[in-house]
Design a protein that fits this description.
Largest sheet: 8 strands, parallel
Strand content: 15-25%
Shape: globular
Structural class: alpha/beta
CATH superfamily: Aldolase class I
Length: about 350
């Protein structure tokens, strides 16, 4: 192959030994996993809110943001279960642009994935230890999940990865809820087949070993909108979309029918200021139809300290260098409004 190998990276076991989980962290992680499982089984009526920066580009700003969420969580704990986003690997449509701290712990420096693996584990560990939150991350590379599998509460499989067999099979072996996004082209059957595959047991190759999985009954849908044949954004969070998805779940007989509505991406036309409006519309849909109410388990929102986005190097603290985000003040208001509406 025409490929240059730079150096080997440490195994998950080696990095976990360097940043070991304490008994207190392990207890927090397990308790929050069990709480999430109860929400997806429909036994806990709280709604899930997966919220945070598009990419975890600055450790201090991300931890600052999550600490702010902690204060809000205490006020809405009876109605909303918050899972912060710490997205450490970012898929890029053309392969260009910042790919997250996994690739570049310093966005202005060259790629160094060994440093990245250490940086992302440290960031997730700090979040649990300092705030009591276990966080969500995207499964960009299935083989890398083992570096964080003792810290995460929630995993998302992105729109560009959802048809990949290795993502689906790896998801079938996870204990945590795994959200499968609809693909960028909008074909819902691709997402549903991914959920079906993830809920079934499998035997396959994983990290050079033959792995056997039991199936993950908490694999579920994420609706994030799509692009039409002309590249224009199209939404799929409306009442008709949700009712159709509820009927499709019933037809396929999948466990724990659930959907998380992604309020950004194509659903908002990448206008993050639209996210509170989208959330309110979906809450209204839940009130209108009991099947939709049971199906919609929560929302995904891209949010950071400052509104919008900036270019790498501009240096605005807490402002996204990937997709534009909803700023903190608007996010805080959105969460309180959401709690009042439930």
């Amino acid at each position: 192959m025409n490929m240059i190998y730079h150096h080997a990276v440490s195994t998950p076991e080696e990095i976990k030994a360097r940043y070991p989980v304490t008994p207190e962290i392990a207890e927090t992680v397990q308790a929050r996993i069990e709480a999430l499982q109860a929400i997806f089984r429909g036994e806990d009526p709280r709604l899930l809110l997966i919220v945070g920066p598009c990419s975890a580009d600055n450790e201090e700003a991300v931890l600052d943001y999550i600490a702010r969420l902690r204060r809000v969580q205490e006020a809405v704990a009876e109605r909303i279960f918050i899972v912060p986003r710490i997205y450490t690997g970012k898929p890029r449509t053309t392969g260009e642009g910042y790919m997250g701290p996994l690739h570049q712990p310093d966005p202005e420096a060259r790629t160094d994935m060994m440093k990245g693996l250490l940086a992302v584990r440290k960031m997730h560990m700090r979040a649990v230890a300092e705030t009591g939150f276990t966080c969500a991350d995207e499964m960009l590379y299935p083989e890398n999940h083992a570096y964080l599998d003792d810290l995460l509460a929630y995993v998302a499989v992105g729109a560009r990865s959802v048809e990949n067999q290795q993502h689906r099979l790896t998801a079938s072996g996870l204990e945590v809820p795994v959200g499968m996004k609809n693909p960028t082209g909008g074909d819902i059957s691709v997402m549903m087949n991914a959920i079906l595959a993830a809920q079934r047991p499998h035997t396959f190759l994983y990290r050079g070993m033959e792995a056997e999985t039991p199936g993950n009954p908490y694999a579920h849908a994420i609706l994030r909108g799509y692009t039409d044949k002309h590249g224009a954004p199209m939404s799929n969070y409306h009442y008709e979309d949700l009712a159709r998805l509820s009927a499709l779940y019933a037809k396929m007989g999948l466990a724990n029918p659930s959907v998380i509505v992604d309020c950004n991406h194509a659903n908002s036309g990448k206008n993050p200021l639209e996210q509170p409006r989208i959330l309110r519309e979906v809450l209204s849909c839940r009130r209108w139809n009991g099947d939709v109410a049971r199906l919609v388990k929560g929302f995904m929102v891209e949010s950071y300290i400052e509104d919008g986005a900036q270019k790498i190097g501009e240096g605005v603290y807490g402002k996204s260098i990937t997709d534009a985000c909803l700023g903190w003040e608007k996010t805080e208001r959105m969460i309180y409004d959401m709690a009042e509406a439930l």
